[in-house]
Amino acid sequence: MTSLRGGTTSLLVEMKNLSVSYKEGVPSLRDVSFSMKPGEIIGIVGESGSGKSTLIRAVLGLLPVGGRYTGGEIVFRERVLLRDSQQDWQGMRGKRIAMVFQDSGSYLNPIRRIGSQYVETIRAHLPMSRKEAWRLAVHTLARMGLDDPERVMHVYASQLSGGMKQRTAIAMAATLEPELLLADEPTSALDVTTQNEVMSQLSRLCADKGTGMMLVTHNMAVAAHMADRIGVMVDGRLVELGDTLRVISNPTHEYTRKLLQAVPELEGECT
Ligand SMILES: Nc1ncnc2c1ncn2[C@@H]1O[C@H](COP(=O)(O)OP(=O)(O)OP(=O)(O)O)[C@@H](O)[C@H]1O
């Protein structure tokens, strides 16, 4: 299990009574409140439809079609995002707040070599020469477990396997050293062995760069392995939030107990 990182005491993110609806009068997020410290990893678990994706998309200011903020606040580094214009919010995306999702790899540009799009992404946010950006990209691809990163830089996405594309997309998001990485089931399309590897590499990359992560997963074992704290969602509410060890050894909510009982290797730790 990872430990808490980041030295400053100011908060990275605060959610205050956040509510979101897609349909009038039917909230998909209900009064969700919590805060994150810099460098912290929070795992968000819960059943399908409980609002996990809505929660992290809300932080990015990119709700799925039809979604509306109906109450509350999101504060990022002491700045209230919900009161800011979309333009201010846009300035945060990519560099300060980045997101990876289940099929990020499939969004790589198919008609440009990986190296060209990777270098351009880096240089759009960081003051670097092409050579420096190339070196940083190769280094990060290697940290994400890609065996021959120079070759990866020279090929098109169609020449990479699904796992390699996903690792590449995750590396690209992490390269910019965002303060917050929003990860929505980033490895669930990969086979189990690859999932574990990519999760460990991602966690190491975040630790290297002091990046905080909000990790949405349906897999309690993944959350227990990766996160400093675990939050559990049921029907749009955050019904439990606590240190990982406390949540898995002494869950307070019935639904958390049910989730833990479904994970054989954690079952013995649940009282
Ligand atoms: N674009 C949308 N339009 C209408 N309703 C939506 C939309 N996106 C999500 N919802 C509804 O909001 C609720 C929360 O959905 P959300 O996708 O956030 O849950 P989730 O916990 O991430 O689910 P899953 O694990 O299946 O991805 C669900 O009832 C869902 O049907």
Automatic annotation (TrEMBL):
Domain ABC transporter: 13-260
Domain of life of the organism encoding this protein: Bacteria
InterPro entries assigned to the protein according to its UniProt record, in alphabetical order: AAA+_ATPase, ABC_Ni/Peptide_Import, ABC_transporter-like_ATP-bd, Oligopep_ABC_C, P-loop_NTPase
GO molecular function: ATP binding; ATP hydrolysis activity
Membrane topology of this protein: Peripheral membrane protein
Localization of this protein: Cell membrane
A Pfam family hit: ABC_tran
Protein's GO biological process: peptide transport
One Gene Ontology CC term in the entry: plasma membrane
Keywords recorded for this protein, A-Z: ATP-binding, Cell membrane, Membrane, Nucleotide-binding, Transport
UniProt keyword annotation of Transit peptide present: no
CDD domains noted in UniProt: ABC_NikE_OppD_transporters (cd03257)
Family matches, as PANTHER family: DIPEPTIDE TRANSPORT ATP-BINDING PROTEIN DPPD, OLIGOPEPTIDE TRANSPORT ATP-BINDING PROTEIN APPD
Family affiliation: Belongs to the ABC transporter superfamily.
Protein name: ABC-type dipeptide/oligopeptide/nickel transport system, ATPase component
Organism: Paenibacillus polysaccharolyticus
Lineage, broadest ranks: Bacteria, Bacillati, Bacillota, Bacilli, Bacillales
